[in-house]
Structure formats: C-alpha cells, structure tokens
Amino acid sequence: MNDNSRNIDVSDFDNNFNFETRTVTLNSGYEMPILGLGTWTQSNEETANSVYYALENGYRLIDTAQYYGNEYGVGKGLRRAIDNGIVTREEVFITTKIMPSSYNNAYNSIDESLERLGVDYIDLLLIHQPGTNDEAVYKAMEQGVRDGKVRSIGISNYYTKEEVEEVLSYATITPAVIQNENHIYYQNTELQEYVSKYGIIIESWYPFGGRGHTSYNFNNETIKSIATKYNKTSAQIILRWQLQALYIVIPGSSNLDHILENYSIFDFELDDEDMKNIANINNSQRYEIW
Ligand SMILES: NC(=O)c1ccc[n+]([C@@H]2O[C@H](COP(=O)([O-])OP(=O)(O)OC[C@H]3O[C@@H](n4cnc5c(N)ncnc54)[C@H](OP(=O)(O)O)[C@@H]3O)[C@@H](O)[C@H]2O)c1
Known about the structure:
The protein is an alpha/beta fold.
C-alpha cells in the first residue's frame, strides 16, 4: 500500500525533537540523542575506532546489538573517549539488543552485554526482532529496568499496529522506542502515527537503504535536487529529513569522512515543500523481511 497521501503533521506529536540539544525526551523520562552511529557489520577493532571518532566529533548515541558481536568494540571506543576526557559515561547513550538465540536466557544476557560493553547500565535495550518468546524476553528487560541495569526498553522490527498492540497487552513498562527499517522508500507513517499516542519514538535503521542500496537512495532525483539546493550531500539530506520527520536515525559507517559528514546536518533546515516532496518518494518498499 502506498501511503503518500498521509503527509502527517508531526508538529501534533508530543515528542518533539530538540534540535538545540539534539535530543528527545523518551516516555521513560530519559533523554535520547536523535542522531547516532550504527555499527552493524563492523568488527570489534573497527567499531572501537569508529565509536571513538564519532564521540570525538559530537555523536552521543551508539547503536550495537548482541548479534553484531561488537559490543566489546563499543566499550573499548567509549573507554578510550572517557580516558581522553572527551565524554563522560553519562553523556553517552548506548543501545543494544537481545539476540533471538538468547531468548531463553534473556535476563542473563543483559549481564553479559554489560560485561562486554564495560558499563554498569544500558541506556536502551531492545528485543532485536519478534520471536516465539517475546513476552518472557520483554519481562526480563523490565526486570533489568527494575534492577537498575537498563534505563529504557523497546522493540525492533515490529511493523504493524497489531504487533505493537500485542506487546502493549503484556507490557508494564511501555516501550520507549521502536527501531525499524525506515528510509525514503519505506516510511511507514501509519505506525509512527499510531505509536505517537504512547509517546513511542520510531528509530530508523537502513536510513540509506543499507549496503548494496545506498547509491539507489542517494541518486533519487528528488534527493539529488534538494541536495543541490542546500549545497549538501544526498546522505545529509536524507538524515535531515529523518530528523525533521521525527525519526531518530543511526547511519552506519566505519569511514571517518562519512561519520563526520553524517553529523554535519544541524546547520540547515528543509522547508515544508522539501519535506512533502520527500514524503512522496515513499512506495512502501522494504529491503529486508526480518
Ligand atoms: N534492528 C535491526 O534489525 C537493524 C538492522 C539493520 C541495521 N540496524 C542498525 O542500523 C544501523 C544503520 O543501518 P546500516 O548501517 O545497515 O545501513 P545504512 O546506514 O543505511 O547504510 C550503511 C552504508 O552506507 C554507507 N555510508 C554511510 N554514510 C555514508 C555517506 N555519508 N556517504 C556515502 N556512504 C555512506 C556505509 O559505508 P561506509 O562504512 O563506507 O561509510 C555503509 O555501506 C546499523 O549500523 C545498525 O546499527 C539495525
């Protein structure tokens, strides 16, 4: 289904992003940076370097997962940045996700993540994707919050109202974030609109379509012409659109130039017409099915 007609007015949402502090207040009460670094496919060594470089250049949100095998690298980059006086632990927001194979061992896996990350709390913990055991995993994450090991919890790869409603039916702590595939070709504004009444924020993975699809996204004619208008790159236009459309965004990169470029999007603003034109690119096409 094409939802181009839905150009929703995000100014109606309660959770407006603060472009000065570059954060949003989650329904858990914690502040979350709205632009962060994705680390999928990066080795521990690459991750440590990209995390350090990102923190050195203003990023305060890092996205990892048990499944990526690089939580250790995130911890290493973070520790180096703390040791060099760039950030304090409190200033950095770390997201990790419980891997499907840990679903029978969800609570213990929180301790294992804390150990690999070298921190004593996780800022945001997500169920990586729906499975057979979601309720038990969600309850383990809630226990993690009660025990002070986790600050906010959420879910990932839940795309429909029905899937989210099921989680809400057993949740005693409302999810703060839903992290989903989301880009110019798959905007899923229905879900965003539905969950906004719970103060739930959508966070986008694959903002550039992921590896193998980036040129297709960067070469979209609408994006290219808006990029020329603002003298910015396609990547910067896409990321700025994500933020103005109230999606937290975590572009993945281990390239230092790209890491810098992706954070340099706070010195311009897309106008309403640009936002509408980008909304109209949507054709509800996803790249992945998980
Ligand atoms: N919850 C989930 O199931 C899930 C699934 C997938 C991803 N994620 C998370 O979301 C993050 C983002 O997704 P992703 O990394 O897979 O895809 P992505 O951010 O859409 O694209 C990453 C690709 O874009 C390139 N790139 C980054 N910045 C660029 C720039 N300014 N100019 C040109 N190319 C650029 C990267 O290459 P270089 O390294 O060379 O810059 C990499 O090949 C992941 O890293 C991960 O943390 C979550």
